[in-house]
Amino acid sequence: RKEVEQDPGPFNVPEGATVAFNCTYSNSASQSFFWYRQDCRKEPKLLMSVYSSGNEDGRFTAQLNRASQYISLLIRDSKLSDSATYLCVVNMTGGFKTIFGAGTRLFVKA
Amino acid sequence: DVKVTQSSRYLVKRTGEKVFLECVQDMDHENMFWYRQDPGLGLRLIYFSYDVKMKEKGDIPEGYSVSREKKERFSLILESASTNQTSMYLCASTGTGNQPQHFGDGTRLSIL
Predict the structure, then answer these.
(1) Which residues of A touch B103 (CB under 8 A)?
(2) CB pair distance less than 8 Å for B103 and A45
(3) Do B97 and A46 touch (CB under 8 A)?
(4) CA angle at residue B28 from A46 to B55, to 5 degrees?
(5) Do the beta carbons of residue A98 and residue A2 sit within 8 Å?
(6) Mean of the pLDDT values across residues A9-31?
(7) With contact defined as beta carbons under 8 Å apart, do A108 and A79 qualify?
């Protein structure tokens, strides 16, 4: 079993749709959690951190369920510019071990 | 904003050459990382460093070495480049604790 597993995708959605990405992690020692966005042929960029209480940044909402070892990212009112690969990222204690999910590709179409 | 700068965006080298990839960060971060990313394989950790002159092997260190003589600079060395080292190489840095990693623009390396 992979340490971090994401929906395989790709997701194809129309503009304006709401889309949800799911991610599970296997190591209960995981300390911190992030979502990154990666555009084609570019570097991953931090989208948002994920907090236990859940957090929101504009159209993006991240949730963490430690009991179920589950992280989610919700994108509301999808834009064409949201088309990218979304990576779920988990840090182990001390930050020395970071596990990147394989990513879920999102295509938003007009 | 954190700035991680990689020396080259695109690089073409020949088999057997010694190749140096340089990475510099401006945030006084303790931890620096080198990854490679290939289609279908995701990000794979080559080496990381948690302090000057310290280095640790990642998941795929074979054929690579690293150098960290100064805190802000982390170099990846391909001792004798081979065609299977053609890839996108990404450098990242982070501070202590559970901070997110910040990536450089990446270097697309082709070995002919």
Answers:
(1) 43-45
(2) yes
(3) no
(4) 90
(5) no
(6) 93
(7) yes
